[in-house]
Design brief:
Blueprint: H1 18-27, E1 42-43, H2 55-62, H3 72-85, E2 89-93, H4 96-107, E3 113-116, H5 121-129, E4 133-136, H6 157-167, E5 175-178, H7 191-204, E6 208-211, H8 215-225, H9 234-243, E7 247-251, E8 262-266, H10 272-282, H11 293-305, H12 309-328, E9 341-345, H13 346-349, H14 359-371, E10 373-374, E11 376-378, H15 380-383, E12 385-386, E13 393-394, E14 400-404, H16 412-427, E15 435-439, E16 450-453
Parallel strand pairs: 1-10, 3-4, 5-6, 6-7
Antiparallel strand pairs: 2-8, 7-8, 9-14, 11-14, 12-13, 15-16
The structure holds ligand F0G.
Ligand F0G binds near residues 97 and 178.
Amino acid sequence: MQEPFRIKVVEPLRRVTREERERLLAEAGLNLFAVPAESVSVDLLTDSGTSAMSDRQWAGLMMGDESYACSRNFYHFRDTIRDIFGYPIVIPTHQGRAAEHLLFSSVLKSGDVVPGNTHFDTTRANIEHQGAEARDLVIDEGLDPSCLHPFKGNLDPLKLDRTIREVGRERVPLVMLTVTNNSGGGQPVSLANVRAVREVCDRHGVPLIFDACRFAENCWFIREREPGCAQRSVKVIARELFSHGDGCTMSAKKDALVNIGGFLALKNEGWAEKIRNLLILVEGFATYGGLAGRDLEAIAIGLTEVLDEDYLAYRVGQVAYLGGLLDEAGVPIVKPVGGHAVYLDARAFLPDVPQSQFPGQALVVALYREFGIRAVEIGSLMFGHRDPKTGEWVFPKLDLVRLAIPRRVYTNEHMRYVAESVIALHRERGRLRGLRIIWEAPALRHFTARLEELVRP
Ligand code: F0G
């Protein structure tokens, strides 16, 4: 589908030579988080905070009311969220992980377990920061990169029921459902699954909280794929989805089409007072939460724009276009293609590189060195850890490379360049080498780790 917008402002891309990229990689310790963005040709590191805002959103910035308390924009922000999500309590935060931090530090205690489909890295880290355990209970199909299940983000209700029974209700303060399931391949969760999860939660009296980062893309998939939903609007689907929950955290940097912002929304007052007190301590007053009035305005407008169905058809269509080109050429990708990214299956791409040598990161390094494309590893570098009891390395089931597509930023010609580059790399895959870590931080190591290439035997 053609882009449902025309381009009013452009940002030039610099040409970067292979020699320069080679030097930058060496300086960065083969970590793409340390490569200057100006030296990247197509930046697919993340779809987070990288959206192009619309003319209306830019106009909204000029309408910012920068009063400390109860600014006009807060009411627009709050009412838009109430309208779409249906949760009356709306707490702005400066981004998604701040909402997670506020929620988890207010409701978790050491030894608790938080079941979810697949927790994103910041969510997991924030849960673990409280001494609690983040437990991933995605359906088995979600762990098989080639299985064509339409809702591979679903949380397995049986596994959930078993988990709550095993650990005991008193140790499960909430269940977290991430839509779409980012770490599991950007895969959607169905309405039927949300209802089933809700039933299990009700049976045990456990609240259900959504991680709503990519809710519009998730609801688009529901409309496209779930029986009986084709005639419903994405907004109506979103209303139903969230009606089954007790609240949500959201990074507005995704489906609110802005460069910064987030929020926490709740159905009832239960946890809200404690959270607001903490908010004032660490983020800001309850009506701005670390954001400027103009940011709140841009979010309110973005949340409305993201539900435009021409936009969603184009958005999900562009990601599918890239995935289709790769799939046709025999490049192993996670299928079906998710909502915000195409995920390369690095273990299948580089079968000779064991997980202990970070096949995903090896691909990420080669993509940048050869083609100036920046992607992100979601695999053994991000999630690999030593078992605290045995000291053995534990690796995630999937080693993925995410090509995340910023919203409204790149054209399909950029997507074609990316596809041709990945296909060329796939042909040359025998030349790629594994990596080893030479320095790492104790938590979220993928952001700052330094690595080196292993010498071929
Ligand atoms: N939850 C999910 C599912 C996410 O994908 C992210 C961020 C967050 C929470 C945290 O939000 O960045 O605003 O603090 N994901 C980004 C990504 C970083 O690249 O996928 P944040």
